[in-house]
Amino acid sequence: MSVDQIQHIGVVGAGTMGHGIAQVCAVQGYRVTLVDVVPGVLERALRDITASVEKLHSKGRLTDAQRQAAQDNISTATDIAALRTADLVVEAVSEDVALKRDIFARLDELTPLHAILATNTSSISITAIAAATQRPDRVIGMHFMNPVPLMQLVEIIRGLTTSQETLDTVMELARRLGKTPVEAADYPGFIANRILMPMINEAIYALMEGVGTAEAIDTVMKLGANHPMGPLTLADFIGLDVVLSILEVLYQGFGDPKYRPCPLLRKMVAAGHLGRKSGRGFYEYAVK
User: Fold this and answer.
1) Which homologous superfamily does the CATH classification assign to the domain defined by 193-277?
2) Which three-class secondary structure string do you get for 211-263?
3) Among this protein's residues, is 273 annotated catalytic?
4) pTM value?
């Protein structure tokens, strides 16, 4: 299937990543169906999309037509059956391989044979997810970065049996969404998280061992390595549960102790200190 044939895009999961993906697709003129089993999550997603679009429009980063497109092009549903006519679906649920495989098996039965099924996973094998379908040649990874409307990068991950046609179509789609696609091989963590997560993990070890305070560690990396934010601030932004999940995938996938999650990270997640979304991580935050 060529990129010109894509008109209807489905997004499964209306959390931070899912509604961000829905927004960028709608702004570029695609008809989008955003699906989540929890109605309240969908309502919050629509409010967040409206607020994001208004902010970008006020800064001149969206035209009047794009602002209107975001309002006109997104519909919501609590039943995945709403994606029966989708040309491409992006799954954006939590990092749980069993959950993702179940969703892909259902999408495989529901969607047209030509439809491409993409996952926004940040670490799980595309090949393993594709094996749950009868169309592994049309399954691919589209790893958007958070926040989706602002971050330009999309990692495109080709599974063992992903076709060249599927790869070419999704690379071009990413460009039409205003993103810069970069192809990555199907290894745990791909490129971004294979490099980023060990750095965050080491920063947590440094904090646990008393090498420096959270503020000191973040300041050193901002001023000494020219990072826009420190690794502990970034971990809070990502979500400490997500960081732990990705590190566990890396550790299990490679069997290398350098990916072993820091005990302090495990304790914080067990305590419910997940970062910005919970109001407390390495720093404290006001929760919406």
Assistant:
1) N-(1-d-carboxylethyl)-l-norvaline Dehydrogenase; domain 2 (1.10.1040.10)
2) CCCHHHHHHHHHHHHCCCCCHHHHHHHHCHHHHHHHHHHHHHHHCCHHHCCCH
3) no
4) 0.91
